[in-house]
Design brief:
343 residues; alpha/beta; Rossmann fold; eight-stranded mixed beta sheet; 8 strands; 14% strand
Length: 343
């Protein structure tokens, strides 16, 4: 049945990518790229929806996650290697182009695909993380900080302080998450709270606190947020992250210089000509794009940009799946109607 979710793997000499698929093999590929610390399962609400619409909906486990290869060095998690993984996936599918949808660290991946391989992109959609042509790094994010909320004297790195904690205390960061993985999962995957608007995000004080949960401390044991995860989802994330650990996921934060150089290599393609969708999460106060200037560079750098806002937190695809699916479908209908005819 084309509406059931199937498991696959593409293996090359350099990497193995496990991926989920739903929908007819002849449909236009729409590839959903997850972020930290998720899995292909984070798109569980999107795969059957777009498969039923006739697309070939694909969700890979990114490198370091799930059943894909866990590479041994932090430098193995630079965007140049990750984009190569996605090109191999596209070649394996036997198609020239896909619609790319990214969230969290998946967003820099799809933005890099648009820069490096525009000929392989029908269009690009991003949830929460806007396009920054020079690449996603503290050096490009901190200058866009909202200093009304993050006075420089108190919060020099604003809400991006946690990224510097990875650089300065990498082993402490990933081992703390691993002390109680189930508690980490329950603490991280929570719905957005409108009360946080205008308040500093907790990520702004990670270095001052000596870690995400305090010096060397595991995550607090909190009840699961049923509006984001079911018990089955919690078990799946926990098992996958216990098996692989957080070294790979956290290593994505350790390649700012290499990622910046990769972006520079495609400078001629920094202005994106293809249709682009950006979906703001109104209650995501780390990737805060509603009140701050974080999305301004994207508006200058995209020739065909559509914006939408969903009233949710960071985990948009899981917290508000119906709203997101409708937003993506509307954009595809308006900007890429020919792709529907191909399904």
């Amino acid at each position: 049945m084309t509406h059931s979710v199937q498991e696959h793997v593409v293996t090359t000499a350099r990497h193995a990518t496990h991926y989920l698929s739903c929908g007819p093999e002849t449909g236009t590929p729409i590839i959903f790229v997850h972020g930290w610390p998720e899995q292909s399962r984070s798109w569980r609400h999107q795969l059957p929806a777009f498969g039923r619409l006739g697309f070939r909906a694909i969700a890979p486990d990114m490198r370091g996650y799930g059943h894909s290869t866990v590479h041994p060095r932090s430098e193995d998690y630079c965007l140049q290697q990750i984009v190569a993984d996605m090109v191999e996936l596209l070649d394996h599918l036997g198609v020239e182009k896909a619609v790319w949808v990214g969230h969290d660290w998946g967003s820099p991946v799809v933005w890099a695909m648009a820069q490096q391989h525009p000929e392989r992109c029908h269009g690009v959609a991003s949830l929460c993380v806007p396009y920054i042509s020079e690449g996603l790094a503290p050096e490009t994010l901190i200058p866009l900080a909202d200093r009304r909320i993050y006075p420089e004297a108190q919060f020099p790195a604003a809400q991006w302080d946690y990224m510097l904690f990875y650089r300065e205390n990498f082993t402490a960061a990933h081992t703390a998450f691993e002390k109680d993985v189930r508690a980490t999962v329950k603490a991280l995957f929570r719905a957005g709270d409108p009360a946080g608007r205008g308040q500093p995000a907790f990520t702004a004080a990670v270095r001052a606190n000596g870690g995400w949960f305090g010096p060397g401390a595991p995550a607090p044991d909190m009840p699961r947020d049923d509006s984001v995860l079911t018990e089955e989802d919690e078990d799946h994330y926990t098992a996958a992250l216990e098996k692989n650990g957080f070294f790979g996921p956290d290593s994505w934060y350790m390649n700012a210089a290499a990622n910046a150089a990769f972006a520079q290599s495609a400078r001629a393609n920094w202005r994106l000509a293809m249709p682009v969708l950006f979906v703001h999460a109104a209650y995501d106060f780390v990737c805060e794009t509603v009140d701050s200037g974080l999305a301004l560079p994207m508006r200058e750098a995209c020739a065909n940009l559509t914006e939408a806002t969903i009233y949710c937190g960071h985990w948009m695809a899981q917290e508000k799946p119906l709203e997101l699916n409708a937003t993506l479908s509307r954009w595809l209908s308006d900007e890429l109607p020919r792709l529907w005819a191909a399904t």
